Amino acid sequence: MTFKNRIKKPIRMANLLFAVLALFGSCNQSQPDDELSAYLFTYFTGNGPGEEAIHFAVSLDGYNYRALNNNKPILDSKEISTSGGVRDPHILRGADGWFYMVVTDLYVPDMGWKNYAMVLLKSKDLINWESSKVNIPETFPEEFGDVWRVWAPQTFYDETTGKYMIYFSMKQGDEPDIIYYAFANEDFTGLEAAPQQLFYSPTDNAAIDGDIILKDGTYHLFMKSEDGEPGIKLALSDQLTEGYELVSDERVDCEDRPVEGSGIFKLIGSDEYILMYDVYTSGRYQFTKSSDLQNFSVIDESISMNFHPRHGTVLPITGKELKQLIRQWGQFDDLLIEAQSASLKKQNVVINGNERTIELPLKRGTDLSAFDPEFSAWPGIDFHPKGAQDFSGGAVEYIFSIDGKGEVIYQVSAAMDHNPVLEGYYADPDILYSKKTGKYYIYPTSDGFMNWSGTYFKVFSSDNLVDWTDEGVILDLKTDVSWTDRNAWAPCIIEKKIDGEYKYFYYFTAAQKIGLAVADDPTGPFVDSGQPLIDYKPEGITGGQEIDADVFTDPESGKSYLYWGNGYMAAAELSEDMLSIKKNTLKLMNIDNTYREGTYVIYRNGTYYFMWSEDDTRSPNYKVRYATSDSPLGTLTIPENNIVIRQDAAQEIFATGHNSAIQVPGKDEWYLVYHRFTRPKGIDMGRAGGFHREVCIDKLEFDENGGIIEVKPTIKGIEPVN
């Protein structure tokens, strides 16, 4: 059956130039071009104007993806749809040498969530596409004239019939969404017959976003189902078009939030599968992995993307197809570079396509006069010079070329800046100077996990506040803490001499409670107390969380105090043994509406300074403010101009917050230790930037009246401290 508005001529996109370089273990250049060696990710980006369109990204390993066409659509939605928008793209390699893609025909800004059609596309080369529209109520008025939702079509090749089955969900009247199927006609421009129901919910609940994969003779249907707890469910059958039964009504996804748009694919040359899905209420995507298609584990920390996808699918492609895609939808101002040199701070490399510059941050001690970035190129890309170059006199000119299509010059510079001070993702840094060892220590949150889901704490040591040594894990919730195993956040520590021996009291957040562990040395081993120290709200507090402890010893009295809270600042004196608080001293400090979390207290020249973080750690505007008092539990005086540190957009430094501070022993010399979004990628991660943070140190200074002078965050950082 054919239908109206078919576009008979292929849509041809103008050729663009593209250079992509990336760091992976292998660039697969040694593999023949006709073998599967890469991945194509097709997706849309959102519900707003212009966001419902087909986008392409590519990957060499199935984990790290880079957008093509500068993350702009590869087809014009207005030309291929009835509504002006398309979403939920699914792509399939056909058995006949063609590629098939199907999409939802929907433009949310005009239509809300009601739609009536889907779009069928086919291509010989992934570049030029023919498209057709299928309006279900118009095509099948007798059976489906009252349909008002046609969502998320996908295609599966049926070897028994030699036909392509298209399956999708539809909603009729007040009935729940149901997954249907129909076979495409011979030229993939329409449906042979009226759709038939594919999946039957045992409880007659809605099911959408089906995705089928065949493994060991069994068809695995992943879908968003409302059976049991809503989420991604799995149904199995030994036949493609019937007999699907749920494995259980429990979710196979690894989320506790709403998800949709499951996409399952097998890694090339592996027995492992990746199931990805759209955590749409949180604005993020989650990737999970499995070898049996029933038990999945989250691998978000292994995934990178320079775009924010919505409901998409991944297709393994050959080296030849990858080159075609890059040649077609590339741009020289979107030159994506990473490098292999062990001397690089890899996550802080800055590529500015508009200015044609690359900044390479190096570890201390690197020889600038003979440094090789060890660039790694995708297939079809080349560059020169190669090998070690002299960066000591300034930028070095590099030329990148694409298979005879042209070349571009980038000025590549290298420098040994000191921020961030720790390599990797860490946040909420608490700093200690140990009298016992004569060293500095940073105790951070282990970051880089979605939703702050880390479960362990580490410590780093330094003689000079610039060169830091990873001393390893000092407390693991899963093995060392009996009362919880989740959300290891925002620790603090203090050194106390008790009965002539140094002890280290480590207060940490876990499961939104404050715990306590004790050690004889700054690097542990730390032994948990066996129960939370703070697991209740102060009287009068109904919101917020019991997190972000700070411990402070008053140099005037020798007494120690604990501060904590989120949305409120609680304070109490600690017992002499540091193992409990004196509840009769517990009070709520008089904060203002800028207070969010992250209290930190210091003492200087008779004044107690209380610092805290404002806004959300996922916000670029996360910042630090302060107040003063005449005692550790005294009334706070909040200056009119009380910002300690905030973002510097000109330097691409954002979300500077949750700080600690350190005084150089014997000197009136202070330093602020804080976290920021990872630079330069954090600002483009959306709210996920708040899970990918870095620890920095800059100088903290005071004016003649004792006020804190606003700290300007830097890339250069501080010089080594004696």
Tell me about this structure:
The chain is mainly beta and 722 residues long. Residues 1-30 have low confidence and may be disordered. It folds into three domains: 38-317, Glycosyl hydrolase domain, family 43 (Tachylectin-2, Chain A, 5 Propeller), CATH 2.115.10.20; 347-415, Immunoglobulin-like; 426-709, Tachylectin-2, Chain A, CATH 2.115.10. It is globular.
Count of helix runs? 6
Level of helix content?
Answer: under 10%
Question: Architecture of the largest domain, CATH level 2?
Answer: 5 Propeller
Measured on Cα atoms, how large is the radius of gyration?
A: 29 Å
**What is the SS-derived class?**
mainly beta
The largest β sheet comes out as: 5 strands, antiparallel
* Separation of the first and last Cα atoms: 81 Å
Mean pLDDT: 93
Query: Largest beta sheet: what is the strand line-up?
Result: 1-8-7-6-5
CATH topology of the largest domain: Tachylectin-2, Chain A
CATH-defined superfamily of the largest domain: Glycosyl hydrolase domain, family 43
Total strands: the figure is 47
**What is the highest CATH level, the class of the largest domain?**
Mainly Beta
Low-confidence stretches: 1-30
The coarse silhouette is globular
How many structural domains in the coordinates? 3
* Residue share in β-strands: 35-45%
